[in-house]
Structure formats: structure tokens, C-alpha cells
Amino acid sequence: MLPLLLILPLIAAAPAASQHQPFPVHDSRPAITHGPYLLAPTETSVTVVWVTDTPAHSKVLYGKNGQLDQVAEPQHHGLRPVGTIHSVRIDGLEPGARYQYRAVSTQVVKMKSYWPEKGLDVESPLYSFTPLDRRSNSTVFYAITDTHANLDRIAGLMELVDWNEAEFLVHLGDAFDADSAEVIWTRALDPLARALSHSKPLYWVRGNHDARGAAARELVHHVPLPEGRYYYARDHGPAHLLFLDTGEDKPDETNVYSRLNAFDEYRQEELAWLRRHVATSHALASAPFRILFLHAPNWGWTNGCQQEWEDTARAARIDLSLSGHTHRFNYTPPADPATGRHRLVLAPDQAARIEMTPERLKITVLGPKKQKIVEFEVPRRPLQPTSSPGSLIQ
Ligand SMILES: [Fe+2]
């Protein structure tokens, strides 16, 4: 055997000529088994998520006017992600512009230090998307809730949506009941993505049931929000949209959670974020309307902080809140329209249509036979510069 010191120079020198030899490419390709779907876009970005049957690395080809002349290809710490769940964030988009896209996955057959073995590409059909746009003067979106992995319920709700006008769908939580990743897709994301034609985005609000089950900790991979948390804000048309996570409905110490929950700490972080956001967000302060999405209308388990959440919502001058969780329809107009908010709680078999113009919100709740359960309008309130949210912003 050669001494080690002799071998090392040989190893260093020998690949110089051979290291550009082509890597193996097998005649096999992955299949897209779930998705793609579009998640929680901003005015300049969107996330595309899909699943393949075998490990692959992925990218999204996209562009305007049918020209897929741009590419979004993720890297994490200098490496192309390789796996079966694919999440590609597209940035630098033009607000309100129409884009087309294809999801592309290239099989990785065998990972090795050198010359990992590859396969061929699979491409999704051509789909489209439109980023949000706060300059939009007239917009419509729909909200549903509490589908609880019930395919018949999802199918019925999707019939209530006029997809010609809907720009996006908000699911107000308790979607997954997830014992496995397969359930996450087959009983929630797949039917929703099909209804959305893989071309209109989904906003999902986490419900208490979504935080339970063997796959609850995997949800972040299948619903990968760019903020890395389930509470965030967006702007579209005349509205500032606040998506909150009301966590669980019982204390962390309740034995049903076997000491595996830490919602007290999480919700405190969320409340601190909301307070900062309300105090500093110019977008929140200047939007004609503020809409709050929260699964549990009573804020979930807050460890005694419910009034602090309410006070923060009041400081935010929320015009309308949309919730589920109770499985009972309820609409409560504000006692004082100048300061309070319209509170709407949807039943699981209802869809809310929200039409937004700079002058008013128009809300229609549809029942299972498309009958109107309630219809009301929220007029634009005058700005209150001295006490308005965002007044701390410099
Ligand atoms: Fe719930």
C-alpha cells in the first residue's frame, strides 16, 4: 500500500482532467404527484409548492406574454435543495401583472460526493398567476373554513365560488386534521389547488386542529410561508390584510397535549409582532380598510391575554374580521361603527364573498344552495391621523 502522503497528491492531481467528465443521467423522470399550488403571494412574490414521487431538484420557469424567459431556482446554503417536496419562491414580480409559469423537477437518482446521478425533467402544464396589487380598485376574494379533511364539504364549498371573479381564496383554518403528509395533500391542498386551477393563490389561516396530529409539525414544508411563521400581513386593493394564528383552544398544560405544546410563548411572540406592526406599519395606517383573518373568533387560548388582543385590534382600527372554528354562523355589527369592527363567523358549509372598492367592502355569505345568509356593507371610515395606527412610523 502506498503511504497516505503519496496518495493525496495523486488524488488532487488525477481529477483535473476527469472532473469535467459528464455526470450520469438515467432515462427516468419523476412524476408530479401533488400540486403545484400558489401560496400567500405578496405584490412582488409568490411561492409555488408541489410534490414529486422521487427525489428531485426544482425550479420554476415564468414570464409574461407566454414567454417563460425567467427562472426561479432555490439554493439553501449554496446547495440546490433535493427532495420530494418542492417550494420555489419567485421574487421581483410586477404588482398586478399576469404571469405564466411551469414547475420543473429534475430527478436525482443517487446522491454521491462526486457525480451524483441524475434523471430527466418533469414539467407541469402551463399555469398562470397574478401578484397582489394595492392599486387595484375593485377586487373580489372568497373565504371558507373548517373543512376538516372532508372532501364532500370542500367540493360543495368550491361550487359556491365564482371562479371568474375570485382572485384568491382564504381558508380560515381547521383544514388538515393531518395524520400524514398524504392527508395534507389529498384531503386539503389537492382539491383546493384544482379548484384554484393552480393559478389563483391560497391563503391559509392555521386553526387549532391544524396544530394537532402526527403531521402537524410537517405543515411548514407543505405550506411554507416566506415569513417562516403563520402570522403576517399583505396588501391588496384597498385593504390591508392581517392573517393571525389563534393557536390552540386549551392551555398548554392540558394533558391532551402531553406537554408538547408551547403556545403561550408563541402567542406572546405573535402579540408582540402585532403590536409592533400596528404601531409602525404605514400600509396598515394608510389603507382604506383593514381586514383581520383569525380562526378562533375569541382569539383562542391566550393565557389571560384576550383583552390585550382585543385592545390591539381596536388600535389597528380593524374594519372586518373573518373567523370559523365555532361551526356556527354569526354576524355581529360593531356597537360603534366609528371604532369597532364587523365580526363575521362562518359555518363550515358557507362561503363568504368579499368585494372591495376604495369606498366600501361588500360582504355576502352564501349557504350550501348558494342562498344568501347575510349581506352587508362596510363603508370607509375617515382617517384619524392623531390616533391612527402606524403613527409611530418615521
Ligand atoms: Fe377550530
Order of helices and strands: HHEEEEEEEEHEHEHEEHHEHEEEEEE
List the uncertain runs. 1-14, 389-394
Query: What's the CATH architecture name of the largest domain?
Result: 4-Layer Sandwich
* Domain unit count: 2
Q: How many individual helices?
A: 8
| CATH class type of the largest domain | Alpha Beta
For the biggest sheet, the summary is:
7 strands, antiparallel
Separation of the first and last Cα atoms = 72 Å
Mind telling me the CATH superfamily name of the largest domain? Metallo-dependent phosphatases
Return Rg in Å: 24 Å
Helix percent band:
10-25%
Report the CATH topology name of the largest domain. Answer: Purple Acid Phosphatase, chain A, domain 2
| Secondary-structure-derived class | alpha+beta
Shape: globular
Q: Which kinds of small molecule does this entry bind, naming each only once?
A: fe (ii) ion
Note the beta-strand portion.
Answer: 25-35%
Number of strands: 19
Mean pLDDT: 93
Structure commentary:
- The chain is of the alpha+beta class.
- The chain has 2 domains: 32-129, Immunoglobulins (Immunoglobulin-like); 139-379, Purple Acid Phosphatase, chain A, domain 2.
- It is 19% helix and 30% strand.
- The protein is built from 8 helices and 19 strands.
- It has helices spanning 4-13, 15-18, 151-160, 181-195, 219-222, 263-280, 282-286, 306-315, and strands spanning 32-39, 46-63, 70-72, 83-90, 99-110, 117-123, 127-129, 139-144, 169-171, 202-204, 232-236, 239-243, 289-293, 320-323, 330-332, 342-345, 351-356, 360-366, 372-379.
- Strands 1, 2, 3, 4, 5, 6 and 7 form a 7-stranded antiparallel sheet that branches. A 6-stranded mixed sheet has the order 10-9-8-17-18-19, with no helix packed on it. A 6-stranded mixed sheet has the order 11-12-13-14-16-15.
- A hairpin with a 6-residue loop joins strand 5 (99-110) and strand 6 (117-123).
- The longest helix has 18 residues, at 263-280.
- The protein is globular.
- The termini are far apart.
- Fe (ii) ion binds next to loops.
